[in-house]
Amino acid sequence: MRETTTASWRTLLTQAHDALRDAVAGVGGSQAWDAATPCEKWSVTQVLQHAAGDQIAYAAAITGGPWPSEDPFSPSGRIEGDPGAHLAAALDASAAAWATVDDDAEQVPVPLPQGPMPAWLAAGACALDAGVHAWDIAVATGRPSPLTPEMARPLMEVATRIVEPLRAYGAYAPALEAGDDADEVAVLLAYLGRRPV
């Protein structure tokens, strides 16, 4: 049975957006922005730029509006102004775009090579991106995981449907072994190529 139902995909996306917003709000002084993250070779600032760019890309795909001004897969590591405001603008654009999508739409444009997807899967892909990068930032800055088992279950269902083709583009690292005693969050993270901490 599908975990990410048409009734719940909006909740999942809101939870993932909130997790990313909270992770960024919790970043401490200037040194923390330069801290290494689970995303190889990327600092906290670069992960934020990537995550914000991805949210803008989802909004652009849905609405035909502007795409990110910087390549999300080649973040500069420099943000002009307040990082929280930078993210807020991206999340606001994403949320406004998703508000225009019908709950049970079958063909929602996405900025992924797979092309249009049903609303639940497209929104799940957007939530997966926000949620896992929230985890990256939280872990890099010494804070607990923002992912919950309630989020991990539907995100794992989405991940198993979209991630494999994206690994060839470098969007996700190869899957890792989670271990027999891993919880749902750890299983999701390992599948996405991250070592749970």
TrEMBL record:
Gene3D superfamilies, alphabetized: dinb family like domain (1.20.120.450)
Domain Mycothiol-dependent maleylpyruvate isomerase metal-binding: 13-138
Protein name, as recorded: Mycothiol-dependent maleylpyruvate isomerase metal-binding domain-containing protein
